[in-house]
Design brief:
- The structure is a single chain.
- This protein is an alpha/beta fold.
- The chain has nine helices and five strands.
- Strands 2-1-3-4-5 form a five-stranded mixed beta sheet, covered by helices on one side.
- The protein folds into two domains: 1-30, no CATH class; 34-193, 3-Layer(aba) Sandwich (Beta-carbonic Anhydrase, Chain A).
- The protein has helices at residues 2-18, 20-26, 46-50, 76-87, 102-108, 117-122, 127-132, 139-158, 162-169, and strands spanning 34-39, 57-62, 92-98, 174-180, 187-189.
- A hairpin with a 6-residue loop joins β4 and β5.
- α4 packs parallel to α9 and α5 (102-108) crosses α8 (139-158).
- The structure holds zinc ion (ZN).
- Residues 39, 41, 64, 98, 101-103 line the site of zinc ion.
């Protein structure tokens, strides 16, 4: 906790003054253009990876970057998606998976999660991804395949939310699926149809 307090002091002393104009502007304006849905994993930092300034990304982070499909019973994730799309009018949504994801590893390796029942229940939102990951894949290859399949499955879930479906039908919204590699910093666009799918090469 002492590290956090020192960090706040450093922010106020060194960072805030350098961006004072930006923060003054943002005090009365919230106009992000992108909803970024990433994993809660501490190593996956949306603003760092995309080099976005405060105010530019609307962020939802969940374990395994899972997006429950629409149900009649709204939850915090559904509300945040609806707010970003219908109220803030974001034009792009990124679902970003990542290498060495603990959630995807637990599923790929069929780990015993009886000691973490909430996690086990939550990971059911990856059932479709798990179902299409080939059983022939093993070890790290299986985790990597599941990470990619999971991003695609969560994009499909995302499209079931009425606000997203409406914006997609108007051509006002684009969905992107990314996989971030922690060791190399590479970002792969898994929704791209061409072989040259590194985001930086697009
Ligand atoms: Zn993760």
């Amino acid at each position: 906790m002492r590290d956090l307090a020192a960090g706040v002091q450093r922010f106020q002393r060194d960072v805030f003054p350098a961006k004072a104009e930006l923060f003054a502007d943002l005090a009365n304006r919230h106009t992000p253009d992108t909803l970024f849905i990433g994993c809660s994993d501490a190593r996956v930092v949306p603003e760092l990876i995309t080099q976005r300034e405060p105010g530019e990304l609307f962020v939802i982070r969940t374990a395994g970057n899972l997006v429950p499909a629409h149900t009649p019973y709204a939850d915090g994730i559904a509300a945040s998606i609806e707010y970003a799309v219908a109220v803030l009018g974001v034009t792009d949504i990124v679902v970003c998976g990542h290498s060495a994801c603990g959630a995807m590893t637990a599923l790929a390796e069929r780990q015993d999660l009886t000691g973490a029942p909430a996690v086990a229940d939550w990971l059911r939102h990856a059932d479709a991804a798990l179902a299409r990951t080939p059983d022939s894949a093993t070890g790290g290859e299986r985790v990597a395949a599941l990470v990619r399949d999971n991003v695609l499955a969560q994009l499909a879930h995302l499209a079931t939310h009425p606000s997203v479906a409406r914006a997609l039908s108007r051509g006002a919204l684009t969905l992107h699926g990314w996989v971030y590699d922690i060791a190399t910093g590479a970002v792969e666009d898994v929704t791209a149809v061409t072989a040259a799918s590194a985001v930086t090469a697009a």
